[in-house]
Amino acid sequence: MKKATAKSSELTGRQEITRRRLLGTASAAGAAGLVVGGAGGAYGYAATSGAAPLTSVGSTAVPFHGDHQAGIVEPAQATGHLIAFDLAPGAGRKGAAALLRRWSAAAEAMTAGRAPNDDNQIALDAGPSSLTVTFGFGLGFFDKTGLKDRVPENLAPIPPFSSDALDPKLSDGDLWVQIGSDDSLVAFHALRILQKEAAGTATTRWQMNGFNRAPGATERPRTPRNLMGQIDGTNNPKPTDKDFGTKVFVSGQTGNSSWMNGGSYAVVRRIRMLLDSWDHLSLDRQERVIGRRKSDGAPLSGGTESTPVDLNKINPDGSLAIPGDAHIRVAAPASNGGAAMLRRAFSYHDGYDQDGTPNAGLLFVAWQADPFNGFIKVQQKLDRADGLSRFIRHESSALFAVPGGCAPGEYVGQRLLES
User: Fold this and answer.
1) 318-350 per-position pLDDT tens digit
2) Confidence band for 211, pLDDT divided at 50, 70 and 90
3) What does the domain layout of the chain look like in residue ranges?
4) How far is CA 332 from the centre of its chain?
5) In the annotation, is 167 catalytic?
6) CB contact at 8 A, 247 and 237
């Protein structure tokens, strides 16, 4: 019970940091206190050199160290990069450990607003801007490092779904990195540094770039909208929920899987939205496909965005208020034996196909303690019954075991690689 309380306190603390970031109410002095590293950080440089203090967006830092890795419970930032790497032949366990040590040191510095080694000064004028860097391991990582006996039970191939149109070149990978920041240059800077640190040990398998609404773009913090214009994420589990930790984070593992305690599993799917087809639907039809009003995200069963969905409500004409194939009905925990996951997505747009069709959609990242009782269970239901499936296409897929966080002086994955 004490361990759960500690985790809850940490989650609450991180939420408070990000809430201050979104509200933008921190004073210059208060914002400085959020930057790990003191005078060594970008804010410290500005304060001691006579330069103007950074804004609240630039000065906000998310701690790198902790029981869990950052980039899971925090709201998704304005800019995101998802990158998968494959270990180079012969890199082995020793090379992987050295790489994770370099990556962790660089991430620790950059998330605190300090310059890492071999800095290229891309983000010289900016603070950490809520930068988070999160690391995960794919199934192939364990074979190439001689750690097959350490593969956790839940890191298994995701079963195929009838609506999949997966590109193997954009799927899977030995190592995965998620980068997020509220400043695009800060995010790219982190990406570039980590890619350079990987040279000779791992090569890029795929990379995806995403975005969200910037902090301060709305009059108050709001649930994000996706490229279909729908509010997306209303029913996400919340850190204040009593079972939040058990749904999102792994615990109670012993023996060869104990290194995953405090970690989570990330399902990564690139979901293309068939926007031309979607835009041809009437507003009423779009709302019935989702089960929510487009204007404010309220369920069609009535109320506001935060009103619990009433799946049993009947309209005066005898029809279901929430249609039988509406996305929120099919995806609801009540329709899936309580299965839930924490969605933390980015939108993407990679230009237009030759016929003018937009290559755009969602970089879907779902966090859960058990992917088979989270994403996979829900997707099996969505694959058969979701009306939204006619307007989306899953084009890439991956599952990564994301270890817990590390303490100062340690690196992410150390409990696995040095066990």
Assistant:
1) 999 999 999 999 999 999 999 999 999 999 999
2) very high
3) 2-221+234-273+399-417, 275-398
4) 20
5) no
6) yes
